[in-house]
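comment on this one:
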Amino acid sequence: MKIIERISLKLKLTLLFGLIFTGMLSGFSYILYREFTKIQAEEFDTTLYNYAIDVAESLDIDFYGEVEFDPDIIKLNEKILPFALGTSYISVLDMNGKIIARSSNATDAHILPVSENKLEKVLKKGASFDELSFKGTSYRVIHYLLPVLKIDSPLILQISVPLTAYINTTKNLIRFFVTSIPIIMFFSAVIGYFFVGRSLTPMIEIINKTKKIEVSNLEERVPVPVAKDEIWQLADTINHLLSRLNESFVSQERFIQDASHQLKTPLAIIKGELELFRSEERTLLETKNFHDSLAQEINFLVKLTNDLLILARVESGASALIFTKNRIDEVLLAQISRLSKLASLKKISLQLDFDSFEKAQESDLSIACDPDLLGILFYNLIENAIKYSPENSKVIITGINDPETITVIVSDEGSGIDEQQIAKVFDRFYRSNSGLNKESGSGLGLAICKVVSDSLGASLWASNNPKSGTSFYFKIKK
């Protein structure tokens, strides 16, 4: 088994093809040999039967069954050509097996005794066949019932002819198969090896191309055959794998770039303030202000790190997400409860319009999702609305249950977003320049909402309200 495991696929396929072809060829040759020998034997017996008729017609049998037999009949009769001259042994026997006449070359050893069963078969069918062996030579023997008028004393013509020609023909056929099959096997193996190599050429191209693909050129793809066979499936699978790897590396590079770019500024601020604070003696009030500033920057770092980790988690693929059935209204209400204190601090009223949800059944509001990520999406949308809304305004959260989709709308009464910038609000680190939008933030909140929405196969978009403010729409199929 270890030797087979070390053999190349090309050679394995060639050997498999050779074994199958050899088995089929051997089986066909065996069937052909059996049929040929069967036909040959039948033709031999037919010829021997006709020969017996010719010999019987050359005999002179009187009314009393007396046979006038020329011992040299083999030499005199011209109809003996199916068999070699002088090799046929002819005799006439009565029903008791007594030899009445025989050819000059026939001896007792050439005459086969007639048993009762044989005699009965001859009387019933008119002829029967048997075999005997003499000095290493096989003979075919026919017992032929002679037409005698005196019924109570039937005579039997027995002719023995050598099977040499038949045996030689059979041996030659076997010799032909024994010689030709290995030759055919050899040439079929060579041809099979060539065609297997040609068939595996696309696979070799895929292997060579795959060896050249590295981290720096993951966007390249292996060649895909035209025919949609197993090799096409392999190439297509490898290309899909490369696409996923490329996406993972791009996501990793983006995470590294985002982290290095965004973490650098708050760390530099912390380092600068720390060095400035240590440069001279500080009062208690200055120390308190320094601690407050330091805590603010650390909180910003914590929030930024969490946002970056969420982005990395979602972009790493479905294997990092755990999808379960959850009611969308319950996830939404949990986030509204968390943000109620922030809304009250800004004197903002959170209003719910869940009339459509209240009329729906529980199964209609259940979707497959990662509840933590869906909660982060709703949290960021509502927090963003609170953050960019003026005091004494309201944020309206609306739930719509349609036959095939569920829609959640978060609307605020802020200054809105410039129409030319509204398509960019979901970009990373983008922050609107609107007058009221001076709140601090990492610029990742809406970007996280977008990637979470995409991971759920949902739609997320924003539009300005007719009077004031902006509405964010989240729609997902049931």
